[in-house]
């Protein structure tokens, strides 16, 4: 338990009902560590020279989650760490935000969450959206790079960015549905026409003896 082979303990003999009551009392009394306490404990253990697996065992975390916490401690922007310390931003969400390399983006995402403009899952979506825009050369203007203050990364602007991305996604879904409807109509029409010997003979006489492979597969697969 927590890296110890042995622990001091009192062995109590009692009835099953009393044991259940004592167990319930212990569960109610047990206090989970807050995010600031967890960060301080991890920092102290690292300072004492413990390895990541040893620290993970002692604090009851998986090694992968511990490494995410360490990344937050090493690369997290100051205001983000302060938000975790004050309990404004949950540590799991702070880890998501810290994966954004730009410090202003980290601040903006933390502010957007604190203001209620974005929820947990939306934070990750907006972060990935910002990173994709930066990679494709459509980076969002920062302070000092635009003549208008409205270009700053405000919580409201991030919220609108999320809404716009959602609208684009819905538009893509509608387009895909429209293409599927048209394709189904085409498949049904061709299937009926190919069942007409005169039409097939006319195609052959005009030199159209074959269909595109993908279309042919769909027509005859659905027919069977």
Automatic annotation (TrEMBL):
<dbReference type="GO" id="GO:0007059">
    <property type="term" value="P:chromosome segregation"/>
</dbReference>
<protein>
    <recommendedName>
        <fullName>RepB plasmid partition domain-containing protein</fullName>
    </recommendedName>
</protein>
<dbReference type="InterPro" id="IPR050336">
    <property type="entry name" value="Chromosome_partition/occlusion"/>
</dbReference>
<feature type="domain" description="RepB plasmid partition">
    <location>
        <begin position="29"/>
        <end position="197"/>
    </location>
</feature>
<dbReference type="GO" id="GO:0005694">
    <property type="term" value="C:chromosome"/>
</dbReference>
<dbReference type="InterPro" id="IPR011111">
    <property type="entry name" value="Plasmid_RepB"/>
</dbReference>
<dbReference type="Pfam" id="PF07506">
    <property type="entry name" value="RepB"/>
</dbReference>
């Amino acid at each position: 338990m927590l890296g110890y082979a042995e622990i001091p303990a009192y062995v109590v003999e009692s009835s099953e009902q009393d044991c259940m009551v004592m167990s319930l009392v212990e569960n109610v009394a047990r206090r989970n560590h807050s995010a600031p306490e967890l960060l301080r404990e991890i920092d102290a253990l690292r300072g004492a020279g413990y390895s990541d697996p040893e620290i993970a065992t002692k604090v009851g975390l998986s090694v992968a989650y511990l490494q995410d916490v360490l990344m937050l401690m090493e690369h997290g922007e100051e205001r983000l760490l302060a938000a975790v310390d004050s309990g404004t931003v949950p540590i799991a969400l702070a880890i998501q935000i810290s994966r954004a390399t730009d410090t202003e983006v980290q601040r903006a995402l933390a502010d957007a969450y604190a203001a209620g403009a974005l929820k947990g899952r939306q934070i990750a979506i907006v972060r990935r959206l910002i990173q994709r825009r930066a990679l494709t050369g459509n980076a969002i203007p920062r302070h000092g790079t635009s003549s208008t203050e409205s270009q700053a990364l405000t919580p409201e602007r991030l919220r609108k960015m999320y809404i716009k991305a959602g609208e684009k996604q819905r538009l893509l879904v509608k387009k895909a549905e429209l293409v599927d409807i048209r394709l189904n109509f085409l498949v049904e029409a061709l299937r009926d026409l190919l069942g007409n010997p005169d039409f097939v003979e006319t195609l052959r006489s005009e030199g159209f003896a074959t269909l595109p492979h993908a279309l042919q597969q769909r027509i005859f697969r659905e027919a069977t």
